[in-house]
Amino acid sequence: MAPEPARRNAPLLVVFNRSSGRGDRDAVGPAVEAACRAVGRACELFPVTQGGQLPEVARQAVQRAVDVGGVVVAAGGDGTINGVAQAVLGSGCAFGVLPRGTFNYFARTHGIPTELDDALQVLLHEEAVPVQVGQVNGRVFLVNASVGLYAQSLEDREGWKQQFGRSRLVALASGVRTILRGHRSLRLTAELPDRSWMARTPTLFVGNNALQMEQVGLPQAQAIDTGRLAGVMLKPVGRWSLLALLARGAFGQLSEADEVVHFAFRSLTVNVRAGGARRIKVATDGELTAMTMPLRFEVAASPLRLIRPPGLAPERREAQAATEAGA
Q1: N or C terminus: fewer CB in 10 A for the chain?
Q2: Residue ranges of the chain that CATH labels 3.40.50.10330
C-alpha cells in the first residue's frame, strides 16, 4: 500500500553524500538534527561515503520511509539527488532536497535555497507538490540526459575536478578542452510519435530543467513547464564554431544560432544507423552509464512529490525577465 501524503510532523530520512561539492559536508548531519530537534520532529541519517553505496543506501532510506510514513531527503549535488530520486520514484514517498553541489540546478529551478539552514526551513514547513521526471531507458533524470560531446565533456570534467577541485570555472575550462581535443559526430535515427528523421550530430541533449534552458536562451523552458522534455541537437560544425556556441550559451543566446536544432516532446526514440556501436555512454544529471541502443527518452508516468516553496522560483522569474528583455 502506498504511503499517505507527508504529514507536517513526518520523520525525515536523510541520505547525505559526504563526497559532494561543498566543503561543509560534515555539517549536514548536525544541522539536520538541530533543525528537527527545534521543531520536535524525528529524523534518521543515512550517510554515503562512496559513490557506489548510493543506490543501496537510498533504497534503505525509502523502505524506512514507507514503514514510518516519512519523507526521503537527498543532501548533495545533482548526481546525489538523481540517485535518491531513482529510489523514491513510484514509492509514494514525499521527496525533499538539501542542495550541496556545484550547480544545484534541480533545487534552484524549484526555488529551494542553496544555503543549508534556509533549505531546512523549506523542508520542515512547506508542502509536497508533483514535479516532472524524465527517464532514458528507465533511468531517471531531473536536469538533463545526453549522449555524444556533452556526455564526453562530463566524463573529462571528473579528471579536472580531481586535479583542480569543484567549481564552475573548472567545469567551463574542462568543456573548452574537450572541444579543442576534437570529436566524432553521431549518426542517429530519431523517432517522435508523428515523424522520424536521420541526423548527424556531435551531441544530443535532452533537458528537463526549465531554468537551465532559460539561462542558455532556448525557448523550451515553457515546454518543460507544460509536461514535455526539451531536445537539442547541434548540426555538424568545427571546433571553433563549437566554442562560439559555448560562448552564446554563456550569454543566453543559443536560440539565435542556426547550428542549433531544438524541439519539445513527451517521448523520443533514438538509435544508431547501420554499422554503429550498440552501446553508448549516456550522461544523466552528470552521472555516466553505458546503455544499449535504442534509447527511449520520455516523461515518467508518475511525478515526484517534491517539498518546495509555492509559485515560480525567483531565479526563474529573473531568467524569464532577461529573456523577454532580449527578445
Answers
A1: N
A2: 12-132+302-326
